Amino acid sequence: MLDAFGQPQSAVVLGGTSDLAGAIVRALAHRRLRTAVLGGRNEERLALAARAASAEGVREVRTVQLDATDVAGAARAVDECFDAAGSVDLVLVAIGVLSHERDELDPARTAEVVTATYSWPAVALTRAAAHLRDQGSGRIVVLSSVAAVRVRRQNFVYASAKSGLDSFSIGLREALHGTGVVVQIVRPGRVPTKMTEGLPRAPLSTTPDAVANAVVAGLASDTPIVWVPASARWALAAARLVPQSLWRRIPG
Ligand SMILES: NC(=O)c1ccc[n+]([C@@H]2O[C@H](COP(=O)([O-])OP(=O)(O)OC[C@H]3O[C@@H](n4cnc5c(N)ncnc54)[C@H](OP(=O)(O)O)[C@@H]3O)[C@@H](O)[C@H]2O)c1
Q1: Per the domain annotation, does 4 fall within a domain?
Q2: Which of the residues 158, 173, 183, 212 is marked catalytic?
Protein backbone atom coordinates (compact mmCIF):
# COMPACT_ATOMS: atom_id res chain seq x y z
CA MET A 1 0.00 0.00 0.00
CA LEU A 2 1.13 3.53 -0.75
CA ASP A 3 1.44 5.51 2.47
CA ALA A 4 -0.16 8.92 3.07
CA PHE A 5 2.83 10.50 1.25
CA GLY A 6 2.43 8.29 -1.82
CA GLN A 7 5.54 6.28 -0.94
CA PRO A 8 5.47 2.63 -2.10
CA GLN A 9 6.24 -0.51 -0.17
CA SER A 10 6.59 -2.63 -3.29
CA ALA A 11 7.78 -1.78 -6.79
CA VAL A 12 8.27 -3.34 -10.19
CA VAL A 13 11.13 -1.68 -12.04
CA LEU A 14 11.23 -2.19 -15.80
CA GLY A 15 14.85 -1.33 -16.51
CA GLY A 16 16.09 -2.41 -13.09
CA THR A 17 19.73 -2.05 -14.15
CA SER A 18 19.35 1.61 -15.13
CA ASP A 19 21.50 4.06 -13.21
CA LEU A 20 18.54 6.39 -12.71
CA ALA A 21 16.35 3.49 -11.54
CA GLY A 22 19.13 2.57 -9.08
CA ALA A 23 19.09 6.08 -7.60
CA ILE A 24 15.29 6.06 -7.41
CA VAL A 25 15.20 2.63 -5.72
CA ARG A 26 17.81 3.88 -3.21
CA ALA A 27 15.71 6.96 -2.41
CA LEU A 28 12.55 4.86 -2.08
CA ALA A 29 14.34 2.31 0.12
CA HIS A 30 15.20 5.14 2.52
CA ARG A 31 11.43 5.75 2.82
CA ARG A 32 9.29 2.61 2.76
CA LEU A 33 10.28 0.34 -0.10
CA ARG A 34 10.59 -3.26 1.12
CA THR A 35 9.95 -5.39 -1.99
CA ALA A 36 11.34 -4.78 -5.47
CA VAL A 37 11.23 -6.76 -8.68
CA LEU A 38 13.91 -5.65 -11.10
CA GLY A 39 13.33 -6.47 -14.76
CA GLY A 40 16.25 -6.34 -17.18
CA ARG A 41 18.10 -8.11 -19.96
CA ASN A 42 21.43 -8.93 -18.35
CA GLU A 43 21.66 -11.40 -15.49
CA GLU A 44 24.95 -10.08 -14.10
CA ARG A 45 23.86 -6.44 -14.11
CA LEU A 46 20.52 -7.48 -12.58
CA ALA A 47 22.34 -9.32 -9.79
CA LEU A 48 24.48 -6.23 -9.11
CA ALA A 49 21.41 -3.97 -9.02
CA ALA A 50 19.63 -6.44 -6.74
CA ARG A 51 22.59 -6.46 -4.33
CA ALA A 52 22.66 -2.65 -4.33
CA ALA A 53 18.92 -2.50 -3.54
CA SER A 54 19.32 -5.04 -0.71
CA ALA A 55 22.22 -3.04 0.71
CA GLU A 56 19.94 0.01 0.85
CA GLY A 57 17.38 -1.92 2.91
CA VAL A 58 14.99 -3.46 0.37
CA ARG A 59 14.24 -6.77 2.11
CA GLU A 60 12.95 -8.81 -0.83
CA VAL A 61 14.54 -8.24 -4.22
CA ARG A 62 13.72 -10.49 -7.17
CA THR A 63 14.85 -10.26 -10.75
CA VAL A 64 13.09 -11.06 -14.01
CA GLN A 65 14.87 -11.35 -17.34
CA LEU A 66 13.28 -9.47 -20.22
CA ASP A 67 14.33 -8.03 -23.54
CA ALA A 68 12.79 -4.75 -24.62
CA THR A 69 13.40 -5.49 -28.29
CA ASP A 70 10.85 -8.34 -27.97
CA VAL A 71 7.56 -6.45 -28.15
CA ALA A 72 5.56 -9.67 -28.44
CA GLY A 73 7.02 -10.76 -25.07
CA ALA A 74 6.29 -7.49 -23.22
CA ALA A 75 2.96 -8.46 -21.66
CA ARG A 76 4.34 -11.82 -20.54
CA ALA A 77 7.38 -10.12 -18.98
CA VAL A 78 5.14 -7.74 -17.04
CA ASP A 79 3.00 -10.67 -15.86
CA GLU A 80 6.16 -12.38 -14.57
CA CYS A 81 7.17 -9.24 -12.69
CA PHE A 82 3.73 -8.92 -11.08
CA ASP A 83 3.72 -12.63 -10.16
CA ALA A 84 7.12 -12.18 -8.53
CA ALA A 85 6.01 -9.08 -6.60
CA GLY A 86 2.57 -10.03 -5.29
CA SER A 87 0.82 -6.72 -4.72
CA VAL A 88 2.47 -3.76 -6.48
CA ASP A 89 2.37 -0.14 -5.32
CA LEU A 90 4.61 1.32 -8.01
CA VAL A 91 5.66 0.47 -11.54
CA LEU A 92 8.71 2.41 -12.69
CA VAL A 93 9.52 2.42 -16.41
CA ALA A 94 13.20 3.19 -16.94
CA ILE A 95 14.08 1.33 -20.14
CA GLY A 96 15.44 3.45 -22.96
CA VAL A 97 18.16 3.52 -25.62
CA LEU A 98 19.80 6.81 -26.62
CA SER A 99 20.53 7.44 -30.29
CA HIS A 100 23.36 9.50 -31.74
CA GLU A 101 24.01 11.28 -35.04
CA ARG A 102 25.98 8.24 -36.23
CA ASP A 103 22.81 6.09 -35.87
CA GLU A 104 20.73 8.16 -38.29
CA LEU A 105 21.40 6.02 -41.36
CA ASP A 106 21.29 2.65 -39.63
CA PRO A 107 17.82 1.08 -39.92
CA ALA A 108 18.64 -1.70 -37.41
CA ARG A 109 19.70 0.85 -34.80
CA THR A 110 16.57 2.92 -35.45
CA ALA A 111 14.48 -0.20 -34.90
CA GLU A 112 16.28 -0.96 -31.61
CA VAL A 113 15.99 2.61 -30.28
CA VAL A 114 12.33 3.04 -31.23
CA THR A 115 11.34 -0.43 -30.00
CA ALA A 116 13.12 -0.33 -26.64
CA THR A 117 12.29 3.33 -25.96
CA TYR A 118 8.69 3.44 -27.16
CA SER A 119 6.98 0.27 -28.46
CA TRP A 120 8.02 -2.15 -25.72
CA PRO A 121 7.38 0.31 -22.86
CA ALA A 122 3.96 1.23 -24.33
CA VAL A 123 2.89 -2.42 -24.47
CA ALA A 124 4.35 -3.07 -21.01
CA LEU A 125 2.50 -0.02 -19.63
CA THR A 126 -0.76 -1.29 -21.09
CA ARG A 127 -0.32 -4.60 -19.29
CA ALA A 128 0.87 -3.02 -16.04
CA ALA A 129 -2.13 -0.66 -16.10
CA ALA A 130 -4.48 -3.65 -16.43
CA HIS A 131 -2.88 -5.33 -13.38
CA LEU A 132 -3.07 -2.15 -11.30
CA ARG A 133 -6.68 -1.54 -12.37
CA ASP A 134 -7.55 -5.02 -11.11
CA GLN A 135 -5.87 -4.12 -7.82
CA GLY A 136 -7.76 -0.81 -7.76
CA SER A 137 -4.65 1.19 -6.81
CA GLY A 138 -1.06 1.97 -7.70
CA ARG A 139 1.31 4.45 -9.27
CA ILE A 140 3.09 4.30 -12.58
CA VAL A 141 6.15 6.50 -13.01
CA VAL A 142 7.50 6.82 -16.56
CA LEU A 143 10.96 8.23 -17.19
CA SER A 144 10.45 10.48 -20.18
CA SER A 145 12.87 13.31 -20.99
CA VAL A 146 13.05 17.01 -21.78
CA ALA A 147 14.17 15.71 -25.19
CA ALA A 148 10.56 14.59 -25.75
CA VAL A 149 9.30 18.17 -25.70
CA ARG A 150 11.27 19.59 -28.59
CA VAL A 151 13.19 17.17 -30.74
CA ARG A 152 16.82 17.94 -31.59
CA ARG A 153 18.82 16.75 -34.55
CA GLN A 154 21.56 15.18 -32.37
CA ASN A 155 19.29 12.45 -30.98
CA PHE A 156 16.05 12.74 -32.92
CA VAL A 157 15.46 8.99 -33.18
CA TYR A 158 15.52 8.66 -29.38
CA ALA A 159 13.71 11.97 -28.83
CA SER A 160 10.89 11.01 -31.20
CA ALA A 161 10.45 7.71 -29.35
CA LYS A 162 10.43 9.53 -26.00
CA SER A 163 7.90 11.97 -27.43
CA GLY A 164 5.68 9.02 -28.33
CA LEU A 165 6.07 7.45 -24.89
CA ASP A 166 5.45 10.79 -23.17
CA SER A 167 2.20 11.32 -25.12
CA PHE A 168 1.17 7.70 -24.56
CA SER A 169 1.69 8.12 -20.81
CA ILE A 170 -0.35 11.33 -20.71
CA GLY A 171 -3.15 9.49 -22.53
CA LEU A 172 -2.89 6.50 -20.19
CA ARG A 173 -3.10 8.84 -17.19
CA GLU A 174 -6.36 10.21 -18.58
CA ALA A 175 -7.67 6.72 -19.35
CA LEU A 176 -6.99 5.62 -15.75
CA HIS A 177 -8.56 8.70 -14.16
CA GLY A 178 -10.92 7.63 -11.37
CA THR A 179 -9.63 4.03 -11.21
CA GLY A 180 -7.24 4.56 -8.29
CA VAL A 181 -4.24 4.20 -10.60
CA VAL A 182 -2.15 7.32 -11.24
CA VAL A 183 0.44 7.80 -13.98
CA GLN A 184 3.24 10.34 -13.53
CA ILE A 185 5.67 11.43 -16.20
CA VAL A 186 9.20 12.48 -15.26
CA ARG A 187 11.10 14.73 -17.67
CA PRO A 188 14.75 15.03 -16.66
CA GLY A 189 17.38 17.07 -18.46
CA ARG A 190 20.70 15.36 -19.21
CA VAL A 191 21.96 13.18 -16.36
CA PRO A 192 25.44 11.63 -16.10
CA THR A 193 24.68 7.88 -16.31
CA LYS A 194 25.92 5.05 -18.49
CA MET A 195 23.47 6.21 -21.17
CA THR A 196 25.18 9.60 -21.54
CA GLU A 197 28.77 8.49 -20.93
CA GLY A 198 31.18 10.63 -22.96
CA LEU A 199 28.61 13.33 -23.75
CA PRO A 200 29.33 16.91 -22.66
CA ARG A 201 27.24 18.68 -20.02
CA ALA A 202 24.18 20.20 -21.64
CA PRO A 203 21.82 23.02 -20.65
CA LEU A 204 19.34 21.69 -18.03
CA SER A 205 21.75 18.98 -16.83
CA THR A 206 20.92 17.37 -13.50
CA THR A 207 22.02 14.45 -11.29
CA PRO A 208 20.65 10.97 -10.51
CA ASP A 209 19.97 11.99 -6.90
CA ALA A 210 18.08 15.10 -8.02
CA VAL A 211 15.93 12.93 -10.29
CA ALA A 212 15.34 10.44 -7.46
CA ASN A 213 14.38 13.19 -5.01
CA ALA A 214 12.04 14.73 -7.57
CA VAL A 215 10.37 11.33 -8.08
CA VAL A 216 9.91 10.93 -4.31
CA ALA A 217 8.46 14.46 -4.08
CA GLY A 218 6.28 13.81 -7.13
CA LEU A 219 4.84 10.68 -5.51
CA ALA A 220 3.71 12.78 -2.57
CA SER A 221 1.42 14.64 -4.95
CA ASP A 222 -0.34 13.39 -8.03
CA THR A 223 1.24 15.98 -10.28
CA PRO A 224 1.14 14.73 -13.90
CA ILE A 225 4.60 15.96 -14.97
CA VAL A 226 7.74 16.11 -12.86
CA TRP A 227 10.46 18.31 -14.40
CA VAL A 228 14.08 17.89 -13.28
CA PRO A 229 15.44 20.49 -12.78
CA ALA A 230 12.16 22.26 -12.02
CA SER A 231 13.32 25.20 -14.16
CA ALA A 232 13.19 22.93 -17.24
CA ARG A 233 9.44 23.46 -17.33
CA TRP A 234 9.84 27.15 -18.15
CA ALA A 235 12.93 26.69 -20.30
CA LEU A 236 11.09 24.18 -22.49
CA ALA A 237 7.98 26.38 -22.66
CA ALA A 238 10.25 29.12 -24.03
CA ALA A 239 12.08 26.63 -26.27
CA ARG A 240 8.87 25.88 -28.14
CA LEU A 241 8.95 29.48 -29.41
CA VAL A 242 12.59 29.47 -30.56
CA PRO A 243 12.88 29.39 -34.38
CA GLN A 244 14.47 26.21 -35.79
CA SER A 245 17.38 28.22 -37.23
CA LEU A 246 18.36 29.21 -33.67
CA TRP A 247 17.35 25.92 -32.01
CA ARG A 248 19.81 23.94 -34.11
CA ARG A 249 22.70 26.10 -32.85
CA ILE A 250 22.09 25.39 -29.15
CA PRO A 251 24.85 23.03 -27.91
CA GLY A 252 24.19 19.66 -26.31
N1 LIG B 1 20.62 9.90 -18.54
C2 LIG B 1 19.90 10.89 -19.06
O3 LIG B 1 20.43 11.95 -19.43
C4 LIG B 1 18.41 10.77 -19.17
C5 LIG B 1 17.68 11.96 -19.32
C6 LIG B 1 16.29 11.87 -19.45
C7 LIG B 1 15.67 10.64 -19.42
N8 LIG B 1 16.43 9.52 -19.28
C9 LIG B 1 15.71 8.23 -19.29
O10 LIG B 1 15.88 7.59 -18.04
C11 LIG B 1 15.81 6.18 -18.24
C12 LIG B 1 16.99 5.54 -17.55
O13 LIG B 1 18.18 5.96 -18.23
P14 LIG B 1 19.60 5.99 -17.52
O15 LIG B 1 20.12 7.37 -17.67
O16 LIG B 1 19.52 5.39 -16.16
O17 LIG B 1 20.46 5.10 -18.50
P18 LIG B 1 20.85 3.54 -18.40
O19 LIG B 1 21.55 3.27 -17.14
O20 LIG B 1 21.53 3.24 -19.68
O21 LIG B 1 19.42 2.84 -18.37
C22 LIG B 1 18.75 2.39 -19.51
C23 LIG B 1 18.05 1.10 -19.15
O24 LIG B 1 17.42 0.55 -20.32
C25 LIG B 1 17.76 -0.83 -20.36
N26 LIG B 1 17.66 -1.37 -21.71
C27 LIG B 1 18.10 -0.87 -22.87
N28 LIG B 1 17.83 -1.70 -23.89
C29 LIG B 1 17.19 -2.78 -23.34
C30 LIG B 1 16.66 -3.99 -23.87
N31 LIG B 1 16.73 -4.30 -25.16
N32 LIG B 1 16.07 -4.85 -23.00
C33 LIG B 1 16.00 -4.57 -21.67
N34 LIG B 1 16.50 -3.46 -21.13
C35 LIG B 1 17.08 -2.57 -21.94
C36 LIG B 1 19.19 -0.86 -19.88
O37 LIG B 1 19.60 -2.16 -19.60
P38 LIG B 1 21.19 -2.53 -19.51
O39 LIG B 1 21.64 -2.09 -18.15
O40 LIG B 1 21.20 -4.00 -19.68
O41 LIG B 1 21.89 -1.78 -20.61
C42 LIG B 1 19.03 0.03 -18.64
O43 LIG B 1 18.42 -0.66 -17.60
C44 LIG B 1 15.75 5.94 -19.74
O45 LIG B 1 14.42 5.73 -20.13
C46 LIG B 1 16.25 7.25 -20.32
O47 LIG B 1 15.73 7.47 -21.59
C48 LIG B 1 17.77 9.55 -19.14
Answers
A1: no
A2: 158
